[in-house]
Amino acid sequence: MSDWPDGATACARYRVVHETRYRYQSTVTLSQQYLHMTPRPFAWQQTESQLIWLDPVISEGKDGIDYFGNSVRHVALTVPHDSLLVHAESTLLLRARPGLAAIAASLPWESVRDMMGKEKSATTLEACRYLYASPHVKWFAELEAYARASFTPGRPQLDAALDLTQRIFDDFEFDSKATEISTPLEQVLRGRRGVCQDFAQLMIGCLRSIGLPARYISGYILTHPPEGKPRLVGADASHAWVSVYCPALGWIDFDPTNRCLVQHEHITLGWGRDFSDVTPMRGIVLGGGRQDLDVQVTVTPLPLPGQV
Q1: Where are the beta strands (DSSP E) in 247-307?
Q2: What is the H or E stretch that residue 256 is in?
Q3: 0.85 exceeded by pTM
Q4: What whole-number distance in Å separates Cα of residue 245 and Cα of residue 247?
Q5: Tally of helices (H runs) and strands (E runs) in the chain
Q6: Which residues are within 8 A (CB) of 36 and not within 5 positions of it... i.e. 6 or more apart?
């Protein structure tokens, strides 16, 4: 737990199981995959244990760190196979993040905008990489217009960001069939429908369009079964949200899909400019033909250390 401040204590503990299974129409003779499936330790999250295994067993593997500091794993499978299972399992500790009272005292958003490119501290320079257009987050005039309804003159930056979070929730409908990975933001904004990835990238585009750094967070969220019903294995899901750079507080996370300031029910895998930087799994295969994909995620609350 060396990344945590001295004396920091955990407020939540989870086990996350993420299984991705491909079934192929014909035999795959070679598969190379690039995995972003190792949760990232940082100020609000630490890892107790973590493992990844594949079936069939990998022929070659190499761990590394990507440009954004996320843990990655390159694997190669040279044994012919008709299906591929990737099982990632982690146990994590989370500590409490800043609440609504802390974000209310942030600087006016124009002051933060004007700091970018002028302030030379390491943290601000690092934040600058999240100021610009990226493969899935392009700029256009309608994004800025949508953002400015929240970012009115002199408004505290994080208060405005929370308002933008709430407006996206109110104005857009969650619809898993409305978009695909490649759906452009113009279509999302026009259609007012999409999924968590779309809403996160929409909010990021709004923030960058007015000169504020924002990064894409890939991870998981704890879901709650109906009252009196058991927690179902595999019923949780991968999730995405937004992190906003605040000079005084660091990076503060907002979830437009769930209209909330992120606290201790969001588990972070990693971050980048947009979805393309932190796709949980991508790669190439030789053979296979048509493929069927099944993803199951289970997030289980656990007792804190020392509790029964």
Answers
A1: 250-255, 260-261, 266-272, 281-287, 291-301
A2: none
A3: yes
A4: 6
A5: 7, 14
A6: 66, 70, 71, 72, 218, 269, 270, 278, 279, 280, 281
How does residue 1 score in pLDDT terms, banded at 50, 70 and 90? very low
Say how far apart CA 36 and CA 94 lie, in whole Å: 20
Nearest to 18 by CA among 269, 225, 190: 269
SS3 track for 170-205? HHCEECCCCCCCCCCHHHHHHHCEECHHHHHHHHHH
Note whether 76 and 162 are same-domain residues: no
Please state the length of the chain. Answer: 308
Check residue 248 and report its DSSP letter: T
> 115 is in which domain, residue-wise?
100-276
**In one letter, which amino acid is 155?**
R
Question: Which runs of consecutive H residues, i.e. helices, occur in the chain?
Answer: 100-103, 109-115, 122-127, 141-148, 157-171, 185-191, 196-209
- pLDDT per residue over 225-257, tens digit each? 777 666 555 457 789 999 999 998 999 999 999
Q: Is residue 68 part of a domain?
A: yes
Question: Is 25 within the bounds of a domain?
Answer: yes
Give the C-alpha separation, 101 to 90, whole Å.
Answer: 32
Of residues 262, 271, 267, the one with CA closest to residue 300: 267
Count CB atoms within 10 A of the CB of residue 181. 11
Count the Cβ atoms, other than its own, within 10 Å of residue 223. 15
What is the count of structural domains for the chain? Answer: 2
Enter the tokens of residue 296: 């199951």
